[in-house]
Design goal:
The complex is a heterodimer of chains A (about 80) and B (about 450). With about 80 residues, chain A is mostly beta strands. Helices cover about 0% and strands about 40% of the residues of chain A. Chain A has one domain (about 1-75): OB fold (Dihydrolipoamide Acetyltransferase, E2P), CATH 2.40.50. In chain A, a hairpin with a 2-residue loop joins β3 (about 35-40) and β4 (about 45-50). The chains are: A mainly beta (about 80), B alpha+beta (about 450).
């Protein structure tokens, strides 16, 4: 199992905008390089990408959660 | 006279407002999110109330929590600062509806100036020159073609409900226009729930010049102008007062037009009327009116000696304007630079972190408005403004020398800031002579960004 860690401190979002579906749902397969969420830092948005592929992603951070750099965003099998 | 003020904001502007209130003997209540418990405005206010989690939506934008904090602490007034709820008409109405004084204009005045079409109509009705374009909303492509006879090309198509640069398209020919107009309509409807459009001539090399006004609901005065032509992504980074680009005659006409608009809409409080100045044609055009205190207000305070925030509080307390137009005099020149927690060498990437070392510049003609202290942890949840360095001197040249001196004194350790940008700009020949326009800085950055490392 791998963990996806937040590269930045800020606010975590699971979708590109409030009226869009989440990038990934719990249980989804993930390819290396897939966008799995956004971090908003001081009003600018940064994509979070998976570094490795996996068959089952489970989010640990909720949409709009405040998050610190290095904090786990999701587990990935 | 106000007795107890809730400051519905954070950062340097909350500190600024708390200081003005305390100077006047008004008790202060800070509100803060869980991320801001250790912040300077919380430390300086007489009382402080936690209004929610870090996300602004759940704290600084949470009208119910803010009104509850005001009630629980016995406040009689609310100052919104800038950003967050400052230009939210419903907030102004809600504060008034709760029996409190809103330090700013009425909800109706905010609504009128917040809608670009109604603001433009109000300006035109008050005799303020507006950018050639549609008189109001443009209903359909055929009506749009008619407006082209006024504007020519290039023409800007804007969403009436848009803002912050969103919902804007530029067409350089009839062919481009006929393609862009329906797209802009659909886009505005999708983005803002309102497909209303308006059209404006594009002014090529424009300067951004704005006039500070103070008004009490019947009378209004101006406190002269500021020039804010150095912008990045439509965000001001460096502001000056007065503008060296204006002749005395045009300055008087510009300032008089801002007063005429403020009077026409029965404005109350501090406001800013923004203009584009077309240097080649020597003409100015209304863009919008901001119904709040602005980030760059200290340059006006420096050259006029007026405490704008204190005047806002007096007007909100029911006093009439106590400054007469003839008493407002310009002395010297002032420059403000915005120190943001951003790395100018890396495309201005945000850089939250801990202030490991802090040396604040001082001496004659130097003001430093900030929420920083040594050890302060800059949270990542809000905008990146850390501090404003304001210098004042007899002449623009002397102010520029003083700016460089003060920037060299300033040390903010542990963070990347925009300080190197301002040292480079202050040494640039175009900035030295003031030969800039609103799109100048973005071009300059392409050439010079790499040299902006600390």
């Amino acid at each position: 199992m791998a963990q996806i860690l937040s590269p930045l401190p800020g606010t975590f979002y699971r979708s590109a905008s409030p009226d869009q579906p989440p990038y990934k749902a719990d249980g989804d397969a993930v390819s290396a390089g897939d966008v799995i969420g956004l971090i908003e830092v001081m009003k600018s948005f940064h994509e979070v990408r998976a570094e490795t592929a996996g068959t089952n992603i489970r989010f640990l951070a909720d949409n709009e959660d405040p998050i610190m750099a290095g904090a786990p965003i999701a587990d990935l099998d | 006279m106000l007795k107890k003020l809730l400051v519905a904001n954070r950062g340097e502007i909350a500190v600024r407002i708390i200081r003005a209130a305390q100077d006047m003997g008004i008790a202060t209540v800070a509100v803060y999110s869980a991320a801001d418990a250790e912040s300077l405005h919380v430390q300086l206010a007489d009382e402080a109330v936690n209004i929610g989690p870090p996300a602004a939506k759940k704290s600084y934008l949470n009208v119910e929590a803010i009104l509850k904090a005001a009630r629980d602490t016995g406040c009689d007034s609310v100052h919104p600062g800038y950003g967050f709820l400052a230009e939210n008409a419903a907030f102004s109405d809600a504060v008034t509806g709760a029996g409190l004084v809103f330090v700013g204009p009425s909800g109706d005045a905010i609504r009128m100036m917040g809608d670009k079409v109604s603001a433009r109509s109000a300006a035109a009705a008050a005799g303020v020159p507006v950018v050639p374009g549609s008189a109001g909303r443009v209903e359909g492509l055929e009506a749009g073609r008619q407006v082209l006879t006024e504007t020519g090309f290039p023409v800007m198509i804007k969403a009436a409900a848009g803002g912050g640069g969103r919902g804007i398209r530029i067409a350089n020919s009839l062919e481009e226009f006929e393609q862009a107009f329906p797209q802009a309509e659909a886009e505005a409807l999708a983005a803002f729930g309102d497909g209303g459009l308006y059209m404006e001539k594009v002014i090529g090399k424009a300067r951004h010049i704005e006039v500070q006004v103070l008004a009490d609901g019947s009378d209004a005065i101006h406190c002269y102008e500021r020039e804010c032509s150095l912008q990045r992504r439509r965000q001001k980074v460096w502001e000056e007062a007065p503008s060296r680009a204006l002749s005395d005659g045009l300055r008087e006409a510009l300032c008089a037009s801002a007063v005429a608009l403020a009077k026409a809409v029965k404005y109350s409080g501090a406001g800013t009327v923004e203009y584009l100045y077309d240097h080649e044609a020597d003409r100015f055009y209304f863009i919008e009116m901001n119904t709040r205190i602005q980030v760059e207000h200290p340059v006006t305070e420096a050259i006029t000696g007026i405490d704008l925030v204190a005047e806002m509080l007096r007007i909100a307390g029911g006093e009439k304007l106590r400054i007469r137009q003839g008493d407002v005099r310009v002395k010297g020149h002032s420059i403000e630079v915005r120190l943001n927690a951003e790395d100018p060498a890396k495309e201005f990437a945000p850089f939250p972190g801990q202030v490991a070392e802090l040396r604040i510049p001082g001496g004659p003609g130097v003001r430093f408005d900030s929420m920083l202290y040594q050890g302060y942890q800059v949270p990542p949840f809000y905008d990146s403004l850390l501090a404003k360095l304001i210098v004042h001197a007899e002449t623009r040249e002397a102010a520029m020398v003083r700016l460089i001196r003060a920037l060299k004194e300033l040390k903010i350790g542990g963070l990347k800031t925009t300080k190197p940008l301002f040292l480079a700009l202050a040494a640039d020949p175009a900035v030295r002579t003031g030969d800039v326009h609103t799109r100048w800085l973005e071009g300059w950055l392409i050439e010079n960004a790499a040299a902006l490392a600390d």
